[in-house]
């Protein structure tokens, strides 16, 4: 591991140079001009959870949860207790004594679930000896319960009392489940395997129960990502590049996109790589949405889809040199993505200068089928994307600093961005100008306190 | 013949400077005193008529036998003084003595020690052109007249101004040395007094015995036996004491022995007395001893006979002594001896209580007579009245144990012998303290070495820098800052004497307090306990000779836990035998809290029991012996009761620390420096003819063993000068013989190193010529050249030199400098470590210190860079060979290329953002004009400090930092009117200042997304 961190990136970097799209060093739109390294983890850092507007929890394979002050880079608390890697972490806000408290729920491979108080560093609650370790955690808003998903789906109350369990064991081999809250009141959770399963959570005074009410068997491959877009829609992405939009009420397919990066010859675009396409190139690793746009990390590319208009907004086949692991839509319409290649890239959706021209990027196959009909897998229809709405995804900046795969990032708005990586580090990226001003103000304040120098 | 020396008035210039009234004037601490030199004089050293080549420190003594005489000089006489007449000069300086009084007349009943304050004067010997700061001090010597030996330490210089200007510092420094010496001296003096007291006591006893014997010879035998009874009682008492003093282990055995001895002694004494009745005469003691022993030997076993033999021999010597002394009038002698005992005891008390007193009273004046001992002290007569005259056998048995110095008989006539050799300084002063003092003197010499102007400006610089806390961390050599702080530590004011409220021999807190206190407090504690004991059993008191046994017991290298001892004599054995230094130290801590009142107590308590001081003396001897041993010092320093800083503070170590990092280099070149001084002139000829110089350089390159191998010697940073200088002699012998170095003809090798060498040479020669005009500091070789002022100066010269070389070699140097000054990490990439290191050294000048000093510079590394490295390192020497797979740029550099500027010294390229501003151009312009390294260094410093001051202003320019103000941009422009690149520099420096001031130093890396340009040579 270490070897790879120290030296491995180098070789990859060399390759990178040849194929990557390179923005160069002038990035006027990139506001991240200051970085701070947050050191503390001993292994891959996989999860970042924002606690409040300045605190951040990070967790990873070393079983530690560290709470950071993003503004100062200070490490506030260390939450130690898990003996194995942490597999999921989420923040959990609850009301206690009339005031909202934010706790952290962590799940670990040691088959425990813990609730932590990030203010004090105390382990408030622990559940151990689970049948399987939880792979994901979801706090349901509105009702005071949270879910853990592993091989089974468990519903927990605030006091860490197991409320109910799914009895569904069909996918015993499933290593991956992604519950997502879909509707208000009506709680359905989809368990990711080849078929999403809709669970219904019955809330009653006496007991809770989880019932699988629907199996959506339209995906042809493993579902990798699942996201609820808005009240009426949710989306799922599969390993082979299918992106399906579902209606959240009647579970019909609203849109079916089969993303297939077309091999392209004769195109001089540098980002087109000639070669055998691998399956993973189309795997949808991550979905992000702002309620309208859905960003899909497809292999090493990015794909932006308008869920309302049911149209493709923009795409870039090779956005990174390696698989994109995490994406995010920023408020200002920018898209951020991080990848195994150790970089974070910032994209901007720009109108194409001349809409009439063919898209400068690669082609993709698209099956725009509406309703349930589009299930067949014929040869992708090849068409020039001269759709008027098509925009381009332009790279406006990249953040280089990690020497391992960037696992995730968390944005604190203007306070900056924190990335975590396989090189055990977290890096806080900030706006240098702003920080400088803040420091000046701090200095003046201090001078006032000290009455001069 | 001896004219009175010129006594110079000392006035500080500052006295006449009127306080600044102008509100816009600089604050007091930043204002620069007027130039101290009168207008007509050059600031540099005049070539004077003095016969010594450099300043030196002279220690002289006014010997009561031969008058003023020089003792030693620092540096050694041969080096420092040349043909200067030290004898004459010491006569001059010692003829001025401003001490008000010496000790009272000898032989008065109250011998007093005068604790005279040192006198400090500046003397000038106008004829010789020598000026001296003279520090008079007195050391105590029991054998000297009035117990004092006048000494003086003089800082001799040819420049009056130098001494005048540095009078306060000199005074402070020399006071420290003086205190050190005096402390050591007091210690030795106390030891000496102890010994003398022991001798006197012994003499008194012998005398008493003699007198008694004479009385006995005219009285009936029955009385003798009565006397014997009493004596036995006395012996019991003694035995008790003895037991108390002995270790448990030896206790039983001792008892056995004592019993044996007791019996023996009884018969012995009876026999002896019987014999002595018959025998009258001066040598009766001697004879009786031998006779008795020869008869008594039959009665005992082996053991006893051996013992008796020892008795015999001892007795013989002592009796023989006493016989030989042949006191004409024993009564008178006894009286005088007792008087002497009192005197000495008083002296001992004075000398031991001096520091305590001094500490208690900050305005301690020269010693005031204290009559308390005499009034409190019991009349010695009772002892004789009690007729507890120790019987010879017992006495002897005691002495058999004495392994150390046996007490000597003293006679009043032998007290003063003026033909006797006087103690030298080593004997007068405890070795450790003497060494410390000499060390300090050496450092003084080093510190004040150099031209007066130089010292003055250096002082000014340091003083000013000291006040520029907000910016001085950026580029200044930390030594400039450290020295000052260290000096503050060294301030001669009496520091709070928290550490040793009680240590008896401790004088000034300045020196080695903790050390002394640990060692010296023991006797006081002991004394308390002894007093308690004796108070409880007054009968046991008089058997004073037995106390020698006590001394003997404690003679083992033992320590005593003072607390254990208090009032519980038995326990003392344990602690004596078991104690290690650590134990004592442990008590020191506790002592701190309780110490003061104890010491006060002891003073009145002591006189109550007569032998207490004696015991104390013995004890002290034991205790002080420890101080001589090295390991005890080590142990002391390891305990936490001693704050290491305090120990350290007493050493003038500032200088050592300041350039410790270049210590190795300096050491390497000490030999070279010697040559340098000698060969300076010859070298400078090389400068006159550059071609020749180059040729010489080529010769330098050739090592004697392999004359034809064209090796370019590439050594660690700035090695060339060493090389050249080390080989100067070699060069001289080979210049004529050697043909041109083949390398030049071939021209095959790159010219870099050659030029480097020439640069070096030219620079060093010019430096030498400079040195020869300022004949002060470099001309005379000094083996002990240390990392001091000269060291840092040398370092600067070297830095400047390499920087100049860099500027000359790389026309695009300005861009590299820009990278450094704007906070962009510069990587010097190369395959040869020496080359890389050299250029890193060259660029050091321009590298702001981020974080701790030198932390931001990594001269040579092969590890792939991490992002965290970039946060700390701003200047990196990188090994190209670290990643042999990629011949071009190592991948980690490629990866972080946006944060890095890369200077490839192999391919001679520089990849970094181009600089288009004008601010730092002055830094690189003088590549042609300035020749000397030092000059460039100072020049660069001044340019940089100008930039720093602008950055400072920028930091505190309110409007620039308030966000969203309309005037922001305009203000920035108005204020600076600078190119963006220049703003970047200022912003970076200002950022550093802000971070420093807020004490909040999160490790951040600020960067900008700007395109790099590749510059090629």
Automatic annotation (TrEMBL), chain A:
Is Repeat one of the keywords UniProt gives this record? yes
* Cellular component terms per the entry's GO annotation: lysosomal membrane
Concerning Pfam families, the annotation shows:
Beta-prop_WDR41 (PF25178)
Q: Which UniProt keywords apply?
A: Repeat, WD repeat
User: What are the recorded Gene Ontology BP terms?
Assistant: regulation of autophagy
Question: Where does each WD repeat begin and end?
Answer: 38-78, 104-126
**Which InterPro entries does the record cross-reference, listed alphabetically?**
WD40/YVTN_repeat-like_dom_sf, WD40_PAC1, WD40_repeat_CS, WD40_repeat_dom_sf, WD40_rpt, WDR41
The entry's protein name is: WD repeat domain 41
Record organism? Pygocentrus nattereri
From TrEMBL, chain B:
Gene Ontology molecular functions: GTPase activator activity; guanyl-nucleotide exchange factor activity
Protein location: Cytoplasm
Q: Which residues form the UDENN FLCN/SMCR8-type domain?
A: 47-994
Basic and acidic residues composition bias: residue spans: 254-286, 309-318, 666-679
Record has Cytoplasm as a keyword: yes
Family matches, as PROSITE patterns: DENN_FLCN_SMCR8
Keywords, sorted A to Z: Autophagy, Cytoplasm, Guanine-nucleotide releasing factor
Name-wise, this protein is UDENN FLCN/SMCR8-type domain-containing protein
Q: Which organism is it from?
A: Pygocentrus nattereri
Q: What is the lineage of its organism?
A: Eukaryota, Metazoa, Chordata, Craniata, Vertebrata
